[in-house]
User: Fold these one by one.
Assistant:
Number 1:
Amino acid sequence: MTALREQLLSVSRRLSELGLNRGTSGNASVRDGDGFLVTPSGMTVEEMTPRDMVWMSFDGKAQGGRQPSSEWRFHRDILQARPEVGAVIHTHATFATTLACLHREIPPFHYMIAVAGGDTIRCAPYALFGSQALSDAALSALQDRKACLLANHGMIAVGRDLDQALSVAVEVETLCEQYWRALQAGEPQLLSDAQMAEVMEQFKGYGSWKQD
Ligand SMILES: [Zn+2]
C-alpha cells in the first residue's frame, strides 16, 4: 500500500470528523504518478481501507476491484487541466451547500475569501452529478480559484496536496457559515477591489495560504 492511499483515507476521515462529509456523500482524490487515486463509490469512511482507494488513469480507466466515486470525472478533469493542483476535495458541507442551493456567489465580505485564490467564490450552474456537464461547469467556476460552489449540490476545494485542499475546504465552509449568518442580520459590507488586492499581496508571503 502506498502512503498516498493512507493519506487519502486519512483526509476522508478528517472530513467526516469535521462534519464536512456525512455518510457516503463527498469524495477526494490525489495525483499519483501518471494517474490519480480517488475514493471509492458507495462506501462510508468507516468501511474504507487504503486498499479500497481506486487508481485511475487520465483516460478514465479504473484499476482494482472497487468502483471509483461517481464524481470521478471532475476529479480527473481538474487534475488534468491544472498541473499545479495535486489534490481535489468535494463535500456537501452544510453551509456551502445552503448557499449553493441559493445559487449565491460568495462576494468579498471577509478578507479570508482570498484563500480561495481571488475576491469571489463562484457558484457553478447546476448539472447532474457525475456528468461531463458538471465537470465542465466546475472547471470553469474554478478558473484562477482554489474553490467553487456547485449549484444545488455542494463545493469543490483544491490544493497542491491533500493537506492544502483540506485547509481550503474547511476555510470555505467557515466563510459560507459566516456569510450566511451575516445575511440573516442584513446586507454584509463588501471589501473594495483595492482592499482585496492588498490582501492578495499580503497572502503571497503568508504560510500555507501562499499562492502557488
Ligand atoms: Zn457530490
Number 2:
Amino acid sequence: MSSSSFAPPTVAENIMRLQAYVPGKPAEEVQRELGLTSIVKLASNENPLGPSPKAQEAIQAMLSRIHIYPDGSAHELRTALAESLSVDPNSLVFGNGSDDIIHLLGVTFLGPGDTVLQSDPSFVRYEAAAILNEVECIEVPCTSSWDCDLDAMLAKVDASTRLVFLANPNNPTGTAIKSDDLDAFVSQLPERVILVLDEAYYEYAKDFDWYPDSVKWVKQERNVVILRTFSKAYGLAGLRVGYGIMRPEMTQWLERTREPFNVNLLAQAAAVAALHDDEFLQRTITTNRQGLETIGAALRQMNLQYVPSYGNFLFINVGVDGKVVADSLLHKGVIVRYSPHFKGPTWIRVTVGTADENTRFLTALQEVLA
Ligand SMILES: Cc1ncc(COP(=O)(O)O)c(C=O)c1O
C-alpha cells in the first residue's frame, strides 16, 4: 500500500486559525529571484552595523566547545545581566529570542476563560500566543496619531484579562509610552493581570528622560514582565537570544515550561560579550539617531507623513497602496516591510540602515513614487 492512501492528520480548530509567521525576505532570496546584484534589507529591524565585534570574538573562542550542551541555566549571562540591571538573578528567564518568552508566557499563564489584551497594530506574535492557547485576543485600536490608547485598553480590562501586551517602543508604529502614562496604567491594573512590557527596542529609547524605568515594577513585586532582546541593538538576531525580567515567583513557572537548552552555547557567550561592548552599543544608537533624522528630513521634503520613531525603524505613509510600493522597492533591491496587520493600507515600515543604505532607500522611494 502506498503511503498516499493515508489521510494526513487533522489538527485542532485553534491550530487551523494560526497563521505561519511571514518574516522579512532574506536578501539572498530576493537576489536569486530577481537577479539583482545588490540588495539592501531594511525589513526586519536588524542592526545595520552588523554584530557586536566583541560577540564575534566570543563566538570564535567558543567554537571548539560546541560538542557540549549549553548551560541550561545560562549562569554567566544571568550573572552579568543581573548585575547590569541590579536585579535578583532569579528574576531572569532566557529565551531563543524574546519571541520564545512570549510563547512561554502564553503556554504558562493562559487557560480556559482567559483573554489577552493588546494594542493594535502591534507585534503579531502576541495574538499567536493567544490563539495557540485557545483564548481570545482583544485588540484595542491605536489613537489617530498611532499611540497606544491606554484609556481604551483599561476600559477593556475585565475579570477574564490575563495577559496585557504593550510594546514600548511599539512595532510597527515606533511610538513610545511615557513614564507618567505607564505609571497610571500599571496602578489601575487588577492584581490578576500580568502586564507584559515588550522592550525589544529599549536601547534606542532608554536615554529619553521620560522613558519608563520598568524594572522598578518588578522590584516592587508587581505582576509585570519586561521583555528585552539581543536581536536589535546588539546585532545578534541570527543567534536568537532574548530574556524576560519578572518577579522570581513567576520565573519558577516559566522554568518548567521552557525547553532546557533553549539558548545555545554560542548565543550565551556572544550575549555576555555584547553586553560589555559599550562602544558598539553607543555607535549603534548614534547611527540610528542620525539615520532617523536623515530619513525624517527627506520624508518631510517629499511631503510624506511619518510617525516620529523611538525605535530603529520608521512607519511611513506613502499615500498609495503600501503593498505596491513595497513590491516596487523590492524590484529596485530595497526590502522594506508592508503588512495588512499594520492596519494602514498606505503605510510601510522601513528599518534605519547605514547612511548609504538610507540614501539608497530614499532614492528608490522617490523613483517609485514619481
Ligand atoms: C516588539 C517586538 N518584540 C519582540 C520581537 C522578537 O524579537 P526576538 O525574538 O528576535 O528577540 C520583535 C522582533 O521584531 C519585536 O519587534
Number 3:
Amino acid sequence: MGCGRSRPKAELVRFVAGPGGVLERDPAGTRPGRGAYLCRADGAAGAPSPAPECARRALERRGFQRALRRPVRVDGHVIDLDSTGS
Ligand SMILES: [Zn+2]
C-alpha cells in the first residue's frame, strides 16, 4: 500500500480505521472492516511495526485514506517515523 510492492501477508502490518477515523494498528489482523497494509519493518522484534519508508510514502500519498476509503486521522504514535534513526 505504501511502496506498492506486493508481499506475503506475514510480512505486512495491518491498519484499520478505529472510532472517529483514527488510524490504529491491527497486529493480529482480526479487526473487522477494511484494512490497509504496510510492509513490516525488517528485523523488528516483538510487536510488528511498519517499515518507515513504506509508512512515509503511504502518508505522503494519502494511501490510508484511499485504502480504507474514508478520511483517516494518523496520530504520531501509530506510525513512528522518527524511530528510523540508523
Ligand atoms: Zn511497502
